[in-house]
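Q: Got a minute? One more chain.
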Amino acid sequence: MALQGRHRYIVQKLDENFGIQNESITEELVKAAPILDCINRFFRGDGPPRLIFFYSSNRDVDSPESGLADGGTGGHSITVSDGHDLPLAERAVFFVKTTVGTEDKPAAALDPMAGND
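A: Always. Here it is, folded:
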């Protein structure tokens, strides 16, 4: 799947804040199915209000006890969380959204094609 502009924004911010300095590594990590699914849920109108990314260059991504969305390439890994299942213990990058809606329709889904990204 080709990443849209909103996905690329997340990739750029992860590169900047984690100092990875190789956008292709970050892009491959973000394209991992569990992580991409979490990002896409975040973009939905009824999705979680926050998305937190943790980075490690030597994390064991096959750890069965983590139960989190992990992806890894070349010894790098990014873990994504909504903040409820993983306490903040290290450096993290987070994205927060406000839900736009009314009392009748509390969450308005964003049309990915409306922004032409």
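A: Residues 59-72 have pLDDT under 50 and may be disordered.
Q: Perfect, thanks.
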